[in-house]
Every structure is written in structure tokens, then in C-alpha cells.
Amino acid sequence: METLLPGSTGPDVKLVQSLLNKIGYNAGPIDGVFGPSTQQAVIAFQRDNNLLPDGIVGPATWSIFERLLRGYDVYTIRRGDTLYNISRRYYTTVNAILTANPGINPLALAIGQQIIVPYGIDVVFTDIDYTYEILELQIQGLRARYPFLETGTIGTSVMGKNLYYIRLGRGAHEVSYNGAHHANEWITTPVLMKFIENYAKAYSTRGNIRGYNITNIFNSSSIYIIPMVNPDGVDLVTRWPNYTNPTYQNAARLNTSGLPLPRVWKANIRGVDLNLNYPAAWEEEKLLELEMGITSPAPRDYGGEAPLSEPESIAMYNFTRSHNFRLVIAYHTQGEVIYWDFMNLAPPESQTIANIFAQASGYTPIGIAGEAAYAGYKDWFIQDFRRPGFTIEVGRGVNPLPITQFDSIYARNEEIMLLGAVV
Ligand SMILES: [Zn+2]
């Protein structure tokens, strides 16, 4: 993470402000501007943690922040420790410690033994802008807290960022959800990440979510989630206009719209709209592009030189083909609708399931057309597998939707994500 000091702006400042507020330091509103109240909160935090209280978030302060953001500490057992005492000290629960340390015997703790102790705060923040680094910290944190989660990568982006997946459950019934094909629709990433956290938490406590028995779903289904298909694009949008890497600066020059980049940028870092890059009537899509006068890389609507020309779409294609997904959901943001068909190729149950999702969310099911009528991920899935594939547009308004919409969007989608594993 880069050094932050008074005057700094951007998603990392929001992250620090959100963290400080959560742990009892008043950093002021989460506005992404490192002003006096944020500085005072940083100084107070530094004093409490035996750091030089200079009000600057440099490497030493970041290393403690990052540990808090991952949400756990590695604790060395001392004489007289019990899990109960440790849990009190960390504002967490004995169950959370037992979950993070499978096989540990609470009655036979060995002095010098190292254990993972989760903090009392959630890992997935829902009041900040997302970046690839934030996603990565959260995945590390969730993996440590919930070792029953399988995590891995399906490939890498143009710039070499990992395309992460997280698997919920170990059942034979496989489904897959993805977010942030489109860069300025990154709010779909925390929707999926918060679902992962809530699901893992419910599983670890044998709990329910909205009346669904998570242990049963965990044992019967595997939900594969790719929370950020387009991490380069997401960072281009959320770090705008403060770029240190020339790759971002060069990409940003493709925005000749006169509008702020976050308003218009959906593509990957090479200016290819990933949701127009799948082999599903891609040639028809090209004709539409030509009619619009789009013939080269652009912030949106350019489908590439050929289907699957981009590492991100190739990774999704290969990952999907290497599984036996009964159903897929691609999350987008504009319209509050559920697209369930592609060229009349969807199986009959697609409409039925779309109606069930609609009932759970209030979104409107739509058969044909709309955003990305051709060459999208769900189009290709329906075409090649003749199984239910959905594009769900979770909100309405100007992209990127502000994170203040998170709670209402999440509330409308949580049951869809549970239903997807059982319908
Ligand atoms: Zn979209």
C-alpha cells in the first residue's frame, strides 16, 4: 500500500477512514480525503500502538492496518491462557477461534503454540470503494478465519493480477456467480464478498440465513464465486485520477468522452468490453459496434479483435468449461432486471427460475435483449450448455453506483444467491 498523508485522496484513504471508525477512532466521514480529522485519528492510533505519531500512514502503520484488515492475529500461547480469555482480549468468540484453528484442543493448549485469532470486526467492508488490493486482503482474511473455504485463481488479468475464485461448500451440485466483468460496476464485488462472509459465518455456527439451512446447502452444493473478473479495470476506475502506473495513464487516454472516466469505463485495461468478448453471436455484436462507429479499443462497447481475445474472458471460459455448472449468474448494475435468455436457446426452466429470483428480489425478468444482447458471458453459457444463465442488473442510476446503495442491493440479492444453489 502506498503512503498516505494529509491531502491524499482515493480508495485507500476511504479504507483507512472506515477501519479507524470501526475500531473506535473518529476519522470523520468516509469521503476519501485525508483531512484533519483523519490525521488526528491516525495520530491517536499510532500513539496507542507504539508507532511514531506523525499522522502519516507509512509502511509501519500500514502493516498494522493490513493485519486489522485481514481480520486476524497470529497469537502465541502463554502460560495460563485459555481460549475464553484470549477471545475476551480480542473482542471475539471462542467459536470463531475454534473455526479458524481446526483440530485445536482447547483443553490442551501448549505454551508457545501459535493460533489464529480472528478480530471481532467483519473482514468485508461495505462502506468503501473496492480495489484489487482490498479484495486480496479480504480473501486472505476470510481464508484464515474460515479454513473450510477453498480459494484459488482461474487465471490472471492483462496486468498480471490474480482472478480469484472462492468455493462455498463441498457438494456435487455446482453453480457459479461472478461480478465486475464491467469495471465501473465494481459494487457487485462487495455484494459477492459479503455473501461469502455471511455464508461462511453461518456455516461455522451451524446457522441459517433467511431460513435456509446453510449446513445442508454447504454439503449438497458448491458455489464458485469469481468476485472480480476485471481487476485492472476496477482499479482504473476506483483509483482515478491518481495513477502511478503508466499502464493506467495510457488506458485512461482512451476516454475521449469528455465525461469523468468512472462514469464511462466498463472495459478491461486494453479497452475491450469483456462482456462482449465471448463466442456467442460475436459477429452480430461486431456489426452493432460498427453501426455505433466503434472500431477500436474504447472505454465501453468494443468487443475485441476476436472472441476470447482477452485473458480475463479466456479464464472465465476455461474455468466454466472445466466444471459442471447447473446455473450461472453474472452480476451487473443497470436496470433492476434479470435477463434469462439468449436467442431463444435457454431451457424452459430458465424462465421459471428467473421468476423465482424476481419474487425474491423485486427485479423484473426479461427474456431477450437489453444491455449486451450478444457475446456476453451468460449468452455464451446458455448457448453452449443449454442451461440457465442469468445477467442480473442489481441497481439503477449513474455508474459507478455509490456504495451507499450497498445495503439495499445486498438485501435484494442475498436470497437469490441462496436460491441459485438449490433451485
Ligand atoms: Zn454491465
Explain what the structure shows:
By secondary structure, this protein is an alpha/beta fold. It has 2 domains: 72-118, LysM domain (Membrane-bound Lytic Murein Transglycosylase D, Chain A); 127-423, Zn peptidases (Aminopeptidase), CATH 3.40.630. Helix content is 39%, strand content 15%. It is built from 16 helices and 12 strands. Helix 7 (188-204) crosses helix 16 (406-419) and helix 14 runs antiparallel to helix 16. The longest helix has 17 residues, at 188-204. The radius of gyration is 22 Å and the shape is globular. It starts with 10 loop residues before the first helix and ends with a helix. 48% of the residues are buried. The model has no long low-confidence stretch (mean pLDDT 97). The structure holds zinc ion.
The strand count comes to 12
Rg, Cα atoms, Å: 22 Å
Output the CATH class name of the largest domain: Alpha Beta
CATH architecture of the largest domain: 3-Layer(aba) Sandwich
CATH fold-level name of the largest domain: Aminopeptidase
Count of spatially separate domains: 2
Shape type: globular
Q: Name the beta content range.
A: 15-25%
Question: Ligands bound here?
Answer: zinc ion
| Category by helix and strand content | alpha/beta
CATH homologous superfamily of the largest domain, by name?
A: Zn peptidases
Biggest sheet layout: 8 strands, mixed
Tally the helices.
Answer: 16
